[in-house]
Amino acid sequence: MADHSRAARRSGVGETGVGLAASPFRVDRDRIAASPYFARLAGVTQVVSQTGSGLLLHNRLTHSLQVAQVARAIAERLTADATTAAVVERLGGCDPDVVEAAALAHDLGHPPFGHLGEQVLDRLGRERLGLPDGFEGNAQSFRVVTTIDLHGPGGAGLDLTAAVRAAVLKYPWARLSHPDPHPSAARLPPRGAGPLPSAPEAGSAKFSCYLTELDDLVDSRAAAAGAVGPWQQTVEAAVMDTADDVAYAIHDLEDFHRVGVLAQPGVAAELGGWLRDRAALAAAEETALGPVRPGADLERLRRRLSAKDGWAFDDDAFAAAVAVVRDELVDGLLAVPFDGSMAAERAVAEFSARWTARLVAGVRVLPDPPVRAAPVALDTAPWHQVAVLKFVHHRFVLRRADLASHQRGQATVLTGLVGALADWLTSDDPVRLPPRLHDLVALAHGEYRGLAADGLLGPAPDVDALARGRAVVDYVASLTDGQAGALLDVLTGRSARLWVDAVAL
After folding, report:
1. 202, containing H or E segment
2. Do residues 167 and 92 make contact, with C-beta atoms less than 8 angstroms apart?
3. For residue 130, what are the CA distances in angstroms to 123, 178, 470, 472?
């Protein structure tokens, strides 16, 4: 049973009705699984939209379930060995129910259209709506479980335990101001704490808390004080984060193989070219690598990893990882095009199971982790293997021109939707606002009014404008891909199906 501080809830409001679990952490897991925000994830893109494909591809819901499965397996493995379990306990503990709950919750705030939606909402939040901390999917997830969702016994949020709230904090800092000193000021910032490339003045690229939830971050992290550093994840957050990396690296490749966009010749040329010309590529000047030289992009990855993650990077381990991925992905899974047959499905399943088992077995505990590392991480070989698998994903799928044109259309939908809702909030028709949008404005107004009274918003803040901006972001981020498109059609007069499409309101 967990100690009192880790199991404590923020509001102290008791349960009502019949409980299905005795463990407070299991109660948290059940609340998250029952949340409409969790069900919504079935309609949110992972990477490739399912619409019209005729294939069963991953969405944010199936991804979250897989992360939960992997996270629980890692937690159970870490606590099964007495020596490892003792180190884990000294670092704050690792309850399998906590990591499973955090894994289910980690994408609750993810907006429509995958990572593209996250980037667009952040830009619009900062530039169009005047929100200093913009939008970030992890911070939005934390806002959902602590503030927006109403399926806990208290007046706001899910009223989760301190341990589960802390485990959701993949990047346990705010964008600009907390903690002090801020991790972005470090010579080598923790992963995610560095500046946003497109707007360095905006603060950290990744963070898990808006100013509106800062009290929840401080409260949930208090139980781990002294066990991990102020910039480091709890053990349970690190397990969830590692499981997310494992699922992302493996299962997205399955989808790309199924839809036929992960072509074997291109991947083979890049990985084979790097292995063949490894020494020459390493000796070449950056300008000499060229845009199309086989192996050049992989060499750029090697250099980035060496520069940013020197504490974990190893040249020989990187080369071994490239060889393993070539043998098992290029010469294995991708050697036969996916045709929907039972044999093809079996090949995908065997690839996924083999890699998942390998990576879970490669998780280790770091008793004294460096500043850029969490207390739980992948060992040397699997860490490099995940990096190469994710490279294949980025290089041969996310950089495709056809995906880019599709995403430009999705960005247009979100831009139009944010603009239309923001205009509506400043119009002379406030009485007929969508009820949920009206409620979100009232909620955010109370939050920003309190922050202004505490002097946390700077001189003369426009509380009304901040509340409207945060409400629009909350509203849009809670939609599915389909709802976002249908709602824009309603607001721009393109839909004639009043009582169908308008349900999105």
Report:
1. strand 199-204
2. no
3. 10, 20, 9, 12
* Residue 348 token pair: 């995908």
Q: What does DSSP say about strands 363-365 and 199-204: parallel, antiparallel, or unpaired?
A: unpaired
Buried b (16+ CB within 10 A) or exposed e, 198-236: eeeebbbbbbbbbbbbbebbebbbebbeeebbebbbbbb
Helix (H/G/I), strand (E/B), else coil: 201: strand
Residues 289 and 299: beta-carbon distance below 8 Å: yes
SS (HEC) of 411-450: HHHHHHHHHHHHHHHCCCCHHHCCHHHHHHHHHHHHHHHH
What SS3 state is found at 335? Answer: helix
Cα 191 from Cα 215, distance rounded (Å): 23
pLDDT at res. 54? 47
SS3 assignment, position 237: helix
Total residues found in the chain within this entry: 505
Chain mean position to CA 240:
11
The pLDDT confidence band at residue 188, using thresholds 50, 70 and 90, is confident
For residue 183, say if its preceding peptide bond is cis, omega within 30 degrees of 0.
no
pTM: 0.92
Least confident range of 41-55, 213-227, 412-426: 41-55
Contacts of 243 (CB under 8 A, 6+ apart): 67, 68, 70, 71, 74, 99, 103
CB contact at 8 A, 367 and 76? no
CA distances from 299 to 283, 302, 337 (A): 10, 5, 27
Three-class SS of 370-410: CCCCCCEEECHHHHHHHHHHHHHHHHHHHCCHHHHHHHHHH
Percent of the chain with pLDDT over 90: 63
CA angle 238, 303, 237 (to 5 degrees): 5
Segment among 138-147, 259-268, 425-434, 441-450 with least mean pLDDT: 425-434
325-371 pLDDT, tens digit per residue, is 999 999 999 999 898 899 999 999 999 999 999 999 999 999 888 77
Identify the CA nearest to 420 among candidates 129, 83, 14, 151: 129
Query: pLDDT tier at 29 (50, 70, 90 boundaries)?
Result: very high
H or E element, residue 367:
none
Tokens of 48: 């490739």
Give me the amino acid identity at 185. Answer: A
CA distance 84 to 457: 44
3-state secondary structure 240-297: HHHHHHHHHHHHHHHHHHHCCCCCHHHHHHHHHHHHHCHHHHHHCCHHHHCCCCCCHH
